[in-house]
């Protein structure tokens, strides 16, 4: 078990190079500053819609200036593309155990692998009615290295694959996810009370080694135990008209806004709709949901996005059957894990050097932490110096205030002068108000003389100015009502004098209509005469008398002495004519000659 000291020094010397490998594996990305992730606001959503991937503001942190991940204490390294595929902290027990059994960290898995796990958990809880089943997982999936013979990826160096001899859902993964390694961020690792162990801290320089657990298969006992579950999966895939697909499962957990890979209060078969306690945000719009599904799949714009599953998932409104199969245990956690199951399969001639490499990486990590603590200490010292400077400035201000105490007497004198000036101003205002009141009283008396009506206030304000204003307002109201009534009277008379004119809009225009240059009385009499003549002609025509109306119309003169005689001759018949015209005849006949214009 012994290792030569020079070999140990060599391993520690290689650790910084392995740190740089993490950065090189990210396609030589520049420092992913906050603005590089500006397309995503994981608490508020994407630009085109709210994703809402975390309820807590401090659950996610974006890197600032670092070019290599340096997560704060309690945080792990993950990626934006992991989160939009169902990952949130604290993580689900199944994912926690899976990482332990396979000896992996978040950054080792590709986005498609994360989606595989999210779909599997959703399938188990929503469509099979069981907790995520470890035996079923081993029956369906295995792990493979991601890379080529020239490149050994560290970020995304492991992919989860469906076993070639297993019939499983076609998820339609995208062939390539551009730039996902550049969008890294920090996820807070919170260990619920029911979970004793956290996931392993971030170790970017550890080499990914294929383990026996990657190829672990379900034993015969587990195959028998999961036979009913596999039968149900085949029914979900092949039942005509009710086929379930990987895209439907993906769209379902995105639609209900529950992150499958998050530790939750309830399993998905207890999902209670919009009021569910495990929802991380409100519903996405249809446009945002379709955009997100296309982003994490190979569907194009012409392919339809399923709005619902053809098979109704289990939920609070679709309860589990009474005879459902109970779940098998979760992946073995540290307290019960099988060490042999996780043994490393490697061709490395010096497998014992790996602990020293890891030790070197931890040493460098602690060194970086110490550097950060030094910077914090310097910042604290600077704050202490700033406080000391402020204290000194405060002392100086106090001394200056004591020196200025001699000015208090001068301030008192100025205050007294200001009070005297204020009193004089109040007296001036009172005298001015008295003058205004006298003028208003005089104006009120004029109203009384013209209107011959006086008023007395029921509840005086004991304020001369206010009381006079109140009386003046009462008088003015009387005048307004008088003017209003006069205007109504004129409007009633207007049609009699001006039958062919439109009523004026204002009282002034109405008054002007009654003071024209022509004689309104003469015009009225002439109008009445016209009506009488036309009525008389109509009566003569009705009586069928032969009258030469041409000669009547050509008559131009009539002697003054002949006018009364003609009137007296027509007197016996004039009453009937007047009655026909609607006039009440008088006892005496008119001797006045008709006025003409």
TrEMBL record:
Coiled-coil intervals: 370-428
Domain Transposase (putative) gypsy type per the UniProt entry, residue ranges: 78-144
Pfam families (UniProt xref): Transposase_28
UniProt-listed InterPro entries: Transposase_28
ATP-binding in keyword set: no
Domain of life of the organism encoding this protein: Eukaryota
Keywords, alphabetical: Coiled coil
Biased composition (Polar residues): 316-328
Disordered: annotated span: 316-338
Protein name: Transposase (putative) gypsy type domain-containing protein
Species this chain originates from: Lolium multiflorum (Italian ryegrass)
């Amino acid at each position: 078990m012994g290792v030569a000291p020079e070999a140990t020094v060599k391993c520690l010397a290689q650790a910084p190079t392995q740190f740089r490998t993490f950065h090189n594996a990210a396609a030589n990305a520049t420092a992913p500053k906050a603005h590089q992730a500006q397309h995503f606001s994981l608490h508020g959503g994407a630009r085109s819609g709210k994703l809402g991937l975390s309820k807590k503001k401090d659950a996610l942190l974006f890197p600032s200036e670092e070019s290599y991940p340096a997560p704060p204490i309690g945080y792990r390294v993950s990626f934006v593309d992991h989160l939009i595929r169902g990952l949130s902290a604290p993580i689900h027990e199944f994912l926690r155990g899976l990482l332990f059994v396979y000896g992996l960290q978040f950054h080792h898995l590709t986005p498609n692998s994360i989606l595989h796990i999210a779909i599997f958990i959703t399938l188990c809880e929503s469509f099979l009615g069981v907790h995520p089943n470890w035996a079923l997982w081993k029956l369906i999936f295995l792990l493979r290295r991601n890379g080529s013979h020239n490149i050994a990826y560290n970020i995304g160096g492991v992919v989860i694959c469906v076993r070639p001899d297993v019939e499983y859902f076609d998820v339609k993964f995208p062939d390539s996810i551009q730039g996902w390694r550049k969008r890294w961020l920090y996820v807070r690792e919170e260990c619920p009370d029911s979970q004793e162990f956290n996931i392993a801290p971030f170790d970017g320089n550890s080499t990914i080694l294929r383990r026996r657990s990657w190829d672990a298969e379900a034993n015969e006992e587990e195959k028998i135990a999961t036979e009913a579950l596999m039968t149900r999966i085949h029914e979900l895939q092949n039942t005509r008209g009710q086929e379930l697909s990987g895209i439907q499962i993906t769209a379902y957990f995105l639609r209900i806004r529950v992150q499958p890979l998050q530790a939750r209060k309830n399993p998905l078969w207890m999902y209670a709709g919009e009021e569910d306690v495990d929802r991380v945000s409100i519903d996405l719009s249809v446009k945002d949901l379709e955009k997100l599904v296309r982003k994490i799949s190979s569907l194009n714009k012409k392919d339809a996005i399923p709005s619902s599953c053809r098979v109704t998932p289990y939920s609070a409104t679709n309860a589990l059957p009474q005879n459902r199969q109970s779940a098998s245990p979760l992946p073995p956690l540290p307290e019960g894990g099988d060490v042999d199951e996780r043994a490393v399969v490697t061709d490395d001639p010096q497998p014992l050097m790996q602990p020293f490499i890891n030790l070197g990486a931890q040493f460098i990590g602690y060194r970086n932490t110490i550097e950060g603590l030094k910077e914090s200490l310097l910042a604290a010292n600077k704050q202490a110096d700033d406080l000391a400077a402020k204290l000194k400035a405060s002392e100086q201000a106090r001394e200056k205030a004591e020196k200025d105490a001699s000015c208090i007497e001068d301030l008192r004198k100025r205050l007294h002068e200001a009070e005297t000036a204020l009193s004089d101003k109040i007296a001036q205002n009172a005298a001015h108000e008295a003058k205004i009141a006298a003028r208003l009283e005089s104006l009120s008396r004029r109203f009384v003389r013209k209107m011959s009506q006086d008023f007395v206030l029921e509840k005086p304000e004991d304020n001369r100015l206010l009381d006079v204003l109140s009386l003046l307002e009462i008088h003015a109201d009387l005048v307004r009502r008088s003017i209003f009534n006069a205007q109504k009277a004129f409007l009633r008379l207007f049609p009699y004098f001006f039958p062919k004119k439109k009523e004026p809009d204002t009282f002034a225009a109405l008054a002007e209509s009654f003071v024209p240059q022509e004689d309104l009385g003469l015009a009225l009499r002439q109008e009445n005469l016209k009506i009488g003549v036309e009525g008389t002609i109509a009566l003569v025509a009705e009586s069928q008398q032969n009258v030469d109306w041409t000669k009547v119309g050509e008559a131009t003169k009539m002697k003054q002495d002949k006018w009364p005689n003609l009137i007296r001759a027509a007197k016996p018949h004039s009453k009937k004519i007047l009655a026909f015209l609607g006039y009440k005849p008088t006892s005496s006949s008119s001797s006045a000659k008709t006025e003409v214009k």
